[in-house]
Design goal:
alpha/beta; 3 domains; eight-stranded mixed beta sheet; 13 helices; 52% helix; rod-shaped
């Protein structure tokens, strides 16, 4: 059965009569398939040639036709997306349908095509399928673009109960999602095994547009990679057209140099540690030698009577700071020498002159001249001790 649809082309104002269904496939009383196997709306290819995609108004007319003749409609999607205006017409036709409408991501559902996919009561996705979300683009009016984005976010939020901030973030970062992730995050209800083959529409336009979207992504990534590689080649002092092998060799050379420098650094640190230990040992030896020198010097001064024991500790502290000053100070100390008197017991002075008392015992001295005995004890202690021992320690 044929459906005749009259559409006014928005771009050249021509009136075209479609004598065949443009998007409907496999009609039955139970269900029918309608295909979104092309870009949405009008676009211009890389060579500046116009490319006519799926017309939103025509699609809506065919959806209306199916509502009167089947119980369920399957919207099958394999599209790079495109015009938001045409997309809105498709979205409205699905939402206003009187019968059940399920959506099937049969390949790629990018941009507005991904939004259309969310309109199904049940959403299916091929295991090899891809879903892509990004911000709307085109024109310089940011307010309009923000408004469009807000409406798209609202659709996701209302249809699939997503958080607004999550969808915003995904659209801002241009998110590509595989089937498993889409199922996990709640974008789709069922993942269909890839054993079931996709029925791609005839003609070159769909394949061309699929290639175009993937090539755009690849070229975008390639340009980013190229810019990044130019930074790498500049760092390596290589030509921007340097081969992969040359870049790898340059990186390996830097790694080898880095390893060599690391080894040298480790060796130098070991040398520094060794020198530090030697310096520490030398300083310890130097300190010990200094302490020994101070001890010997002060021992000498103490022996000479120029340094008293009770003053030694304070003088040692001063010597640690300036030994030469201590030596100069102690050298100037005068020691009073007490002459040892010789007590000659054979010539002891008395009133009559001298007297020989060599035969006197200590008792004789105590009895007859205790003052002389005291003088002997002070001036000739050895003589006194000897005399004392003869008397009391026989």
């Amino acid at each position: 059965m044929l459906l005749q649809v009259t559409i006014k082309n928005k771009y050249n104002n021509n009136i075209c009569i479609m004598n065949n269904f443009k998007y409907i496939k496999n009609i039955s009383s139970q269900e029918a398939d309608i295909l979104l196997y092309n870009q949405i709306g009008f676009d211009v290819d890389a060579n500046g040639n116009p490319v006519w995609g799926i017309d939103g108004e025509a699609f809506a007319h065919e959806m209306k036709y199916l509502e009167e003749r089947t119980e369920k409609i399957n919207v099958r999607i394999n599209s790079i997306g495109g015009s938001v205006i045409d997309g809105y017409s498709i979205i409205s036709s699905i939402l206003n349908s009187k019968v059940i409408v399920d959506t099937h991501i049969d390949g790629l559902a990018a941009s507005i095509a991904g939004v259309i996919a969310m309109m199904g009561q049940t959403i299916y996705m091929k295991s090899y399928g891809t879903l892509m979300l990004h911000n709307p683009s085109g024109g310089d009016n940011k307010e309009v673009l923000d408004l469009v984005k807000k409406t798209l976010v609202t659709i996701f939020k209302e249809r699939r109960a997503f958080k607004e901030e999550d969808i915003n973030e995904m659209m801002d970062s241009e998110t590509w999602i595989d089937s498993d992730t889409a199922k996990q995050k709640g974008f789709v209800d069922f993942v269909v095994s890839s054993e079931e083959k996709i029925n791609v529409s005839k003609g070159e336009s769909s394949l061309y547009n699929m290639a175009l979207i993937y090539n755009k992504v690849i070229n975008k990534e390639s340009n980013i990679t190229k810019q990044q590689m130019e930074k790498v080649t500049n760092k390596l002092n290589l030509s921007k057209d340097a081969s992969e092998e040359a870049i790898v060799s340059g990186i390996e050379a830097i790694e080898n140099k880095s390893e060599s420098l690391t080894d040298e650094l480790v060796a130098e640190k070991a040398k520094v540690t060794e020198l530090s230990n030697k310096v520490e040992a030398f300083e310890n030896e130097k300190e010990e030698a200094k302490n020994l020198e101070i001890k010997n010097v002060l021992d000498g001064y103490e022996k000479d009577g120029k340094l008293e024991k009770e003053n030694r500790e304070s003088v040692e502290k001063l010597a640690l700071v300036d030994l030469e000053s201590v030596k100069n100070m102690l050298d100037k100390v005068t020691v009073k020498k007490v002459a040892n008197k010789v007590f000659d017991v054979t010539k002891v002075k008395n009133k009559k002159g001298t007297e020989d008392r060599s035969e006197w015992s200590i008792k004789d001295w105590q009895k007859n001249d205790h003052k002389g005995l005291a003088e002997m004890k002070n001036s000739a202690p050895e003589t006194y001790t000897e005399l004392y021992n003869k008397t009391y320690k026989k």
